[in-house]
Amino acid sequence: MSATIRRSPLHAGTGASSTATPSAIRLEGVSKSFKLPHEQYHTLKERALHMFRNRTFDVLRAVDDVSVEIEQGEFFGIVGRNGSGKSTLLKCLAGIYATDHGRLEVTGRLAPFIELGVGFNPELTARDNAVINAIMLGLTRRQAEARFEEIVEFAELHEFMDLRLKNYSSGMQVRLAFSVAIQVDADILLIDEVLAVGDANFQQKCFDQFTRLKKEGRTIIFVTHDMGSVERFCDRAMLMERGRVVDIGEPAAITREYNELNFRRVRREAREVGGPETLKRAPVAELLNAWFETADGERTVQIAQGDPCAVRMEVRFHQPVENPLFALALRNDLGHTAFATSTQLSHGPTGSFAAGETAQIRVSFDGWFGPGRYRLTASVSRDGIGADAFDLREDISSVIVHAASTGGGVVDLPHRFEIERA
Cα separation of 4 and 202, whole Å? Predict the structure, then answer.
């Protein structure tokens, strides 16, 4: 097996002819495997006792024959279930892992947002860590010191910069690390679920920063489980499963394929648990997609607290159904249900749907939630109490609620105080 890796500056070879949109990254048949030994020795004594024993192992193909070309200035999403090889592929691009074979070409300076804060020293102050980490990422000392105020401004950690890092919370450390990383003058950014941490206001700042970087022509490779972010930001997306590429295309189409892939897993588990009869019921209807919208019907991944918004679900029926129940629930990052409803509660009978028919269901409400991320679970069920689901998708989409202040509850209901003197 052999691997070819080529990394070059963005403007190398300017005298040669080039296409209108040159490639930033090109992968041809890239693969990466890991050996998983059946027996593991953890001490020198164990190794000495079993020195001549033949060691056997399994081979895990984390990335298997991946080929893709990403253009300069493209916002490219990589999605897939846990264990699909997304993060491993990103680490191959970053040079953290050596590939087994294939061809990997990167044109331009690259900055990985993969394991933010690697190299931080907990015994040093945040100020020292920020400067040292910026130098490790490629800035000169003079550049790092000149951009220090911008780092602090973005992180919003002014009063904590002289505090030792070991006294920082994990969220504060990520804020600092992200603020340092965006100061690197890179042409290509590798981002792995960095928006899954931090409060709602900081996540929104990250979104705004990505928008700015995209306008500047940076190439962004974005790994995430958040399909709403994929549809909002990405120009194209790639779906992976078991290390292989399932499809590459428009974000909306890839989002749908991702949801269908999860649906097939639900059906397989249903067959194993409930037997053939459960499998027969599963494909009666399926949730194709679900997303959040503004009051004007524009897709969104963030709202201001109190703004009117809506959830839209798209359901396809494969068999005739009478009065199916449509339901949804919004849960925060702690798993607390902030809002749940169904057509049984607030609509009544939904009517008849024929085989092959597609329905769109829109649920409108005012977003009086506490600031943070809220994940959507949607379902379509047989008429009754809603326990017999045709299809149910957890975390099919999400929305970030941002607010200037909060009372600290799951919801911040509109209210007023009245004070009277006796």
Answer: 39
Which pair of structure tokens corresponds to residue 139?
């800035």
DSSP of 139-168: --HHHHHHTHHHHHHHHT-GGGTTSBGGGS
Is residue 340 predicted with pLDDT exceeding 60? yes
Amino acid in the structure at residue 217: G
Residue of 401, 241, 250, 235 whose CA lies nearest to 330:
401
Q: Which residues pair with 294 in a beta bridge?
A: 309
CA angle 105, 109, 110 (to 5 degrees): 80
Angle between helices 148-155 and 170-181 in degrees, nearest 10 = 140
d(CA 252, CA 266): 21
CA 218 – CA 76 distance, rounded (Å): 11
Residue 391 near residue 326 (C-beta atoms within 8 A): no
Tokens of 413: 């209901």
**Res 418 pLDDT > 90:** no
CB 160 within 8 A of CB 168: yes
Q: Could you give the angle at the alpha carbon of 20 between the alpha carbons of 19 and 24, nearest 5°? A: 75
- Provide the 3-class DSSP secondary structure of residue 267: helix
Q: Which residue from 415, 401, 316 is spatially nearest to 356, judged by alpha carbons?
A: 316
Angle CA 238–289–240, to nearest 5: 20
Q: Stretch 328-352: mean pLDDT, rounded?
A: 87
Task: State pLDDT tens for residues 44-71.
Answer: 766 666 665 666 777 888 999 999 999 9
Element (H, E) at 273: helix 251-274
Q: Which of 195-209, 258-272, 347-361 reaches the highest mean pLDDT?
A: 347-361
Instruction: Establish how many alpha carbons lie within 13 A of residue 207's alpha carbon, considering only the half-sphere containing its beta carbon.
Output: 22
CA dihedral of 235, 239, 243, 245, whole degrees rounded to 10: -80
DSSP state of 370: P
Structure tokens of 94? 């970053």
Which pairs with CB-CB distance under 8 Å and at least 24 residues apart come from 331-337?
331/374, 331/375, 331/377, 332/369, 332/370, 332/372, 332/373, 332/374, 332/375, 332/410, 333/372, 333/373, 333/375, 336/410
Q: How many Å is the Cα radius of gyration of the chain? A: 25
Distance from the first to the final alpha carbon of the chain: 87
Distance (Å, whole) CA 90 – CA 63: 10
